[in-house]
Amino acid sequence: MTRLLGALAVAFYAIHAAVHVARRQPENLLWVCHLGSLAVGAGLLLRSPALNAVGAFWLCWGLPLWILYLAMGGEFMPTSLGTHVGGLAIGFVGLRRIGLPRGAWWKTVLAWAVLVVFTRVATPPAENVNMAHRVQQGWETSFTSHPVYIVMIGATGAALSLALQFGLPKLGFRAPAEAA
Predict the structure, then answer these.
(1) How does DSSP assign the chain, residue by residue?
(2) Tens digit of pLDDT for each residue in 44-75?
(3) Closest of 13, 14, 29 to residue 129, by C-alpha
(4) Rounded CA gap, 114 and 31, in Å?
(5) Which of 57, 96, 131, 176 has CB 3.0 to 4.6 Å from 108, enough for a Cys bridge?
(6) DSSP string, 116-168
(7) Domain coverage including residue 102
């Protein structure tokens, strides 16, 4: 069942990716939420608790931001439900099945930082993938400095990841050896 769920999370990514490729927007394959679903899927297929946790934690960061983006008039794509909601749900099932590894919070933050640097180099500024190029439209009055904005996103994500790392065990999520 775990591998089937992993394949489903990868399929959510692939379906959404196909839409972006068809729209000639391949850079959008690199959004942290989309890659979160892919990481969840790969983590479950490879039985890697760390990879699954990073993907699930990224989706916890991204889901509220995606909802805010939609509330501010952003484009809704039906296939994005699979990556954002489906990937997150599968990620949490994965955390139950293969475990919540120690250090998942800092691995999540480190992987995000690497991804932001990569997307800044590899994607066009106009798309602002992972907010790597500038403050997200609509937030310019709150954040006049892009570096401060990125640090705030990272710090908020780190705080959320720490809360998940230490809060989920109180809800019955166990370390990998105990999860099976």
Answers:
(1) -HHHHHHHHHHHHHHHHHHHHHTT-GGGGG-HHHHHHHHHHHHHHTT-HHHHHHHHHHHHHHHHHHHHHHHTTPPP-TTHHIIIIIHHHHHHHHHHHH---TTHHHHHHHHHHHHHHHHHHHS-TTT-GGG-SSPPTT-TTT-S-HHHHHHHHHHHHHHHHHHHHHHGGGGT---HHHH-
(2) 999 999 999 999 999 999 999 899 889 988 89
(3) 29
(4) 13
(5) 57
(6) HHHHHHHS-TTT-GGG-SSPPTT-TTT-S-HHHHHHHHHHHHHHHHHHHHHHG
(7) 2-179
What's the average model confidence in pLDDT over 138-164?
94
The one-letter amino acid code at 63 reads L
For residue 67, give the amino acid letter. I
Q: Which residues of 19-40 are buried (b: 16+ CB within 10 A; e: fewer)?
A: ebeeeeeebbbbbbbbbbbbbb
The residue-averaged pLDDT of 130-152 equals 92
pLDDT tens profile 97-109: 999 999 999 999 9
Q: ∠ CA 111-167-94 to the nearest 5 degrees?
A: 60
Rounded to two decimals, what is the model's pTM?
0.93
Count of structural domains, the chain: 1
